[in-house]
Amino acid sequence: MNYIEKIENIIKNKLDKITTEQRYAFVTTFIVGIIAHGFILFNRISYHDNSACLFSLGGTYESGRWMLGIIYDLQMMSTKLFSVPVFNGL
Q1: What is the dihedral angle through the alpha carbons of 60, 57, 44, 40, rounded to the nearest 10 degrees?
Q2: CA distances to 29, 42, 75 from 88, in Å
Q3: DSSP for 22-37?
């Protein structure tokens, strides 16, 4: 048995223990969460940072929003700078 089959068996055993009500609760919570937060996650709202600081994320570390600086560094290593509200929201 290789490593991937072992992982698949572990996941299958865990999923078999979940009841139908728990599955419905998880799916319902996920759908309601997407509906509640979907506008912010999937639409771009241009605040001051997007318009005033076109090629950077604006005030990050100096204004106390330190996670934006980390996201900016990750984006510059991977996708360069794009407005990706889903990535920022997650």
Answers
A1: -20
A2: 21, 11, 10
A3: HHHHHHHHHHHHHHHH
pLDDT band at residue 79, thresholds of 50, 70 and 90?
A: low
Is the Cβ–Cβ distance between 58 and 49 less than 8 Å? yes
What pTM was estimated for this model as a whole?
0.46
d(CA 54, CA 75): 14
Tell me which DSSP letter residue 63 carries: G
CA–CA distance, 60 with 70 (Å, rounded to integer): 9
Nearest to residue 81, comparing CAs of 45, 61, 59, 56? 56
Q: Specify whether the CB–CB gap between 44 and 83 falls below 8 A.
A: yes
The residue among 79, 65, 90, 77 whose CA lies nearest residue 57 is 65
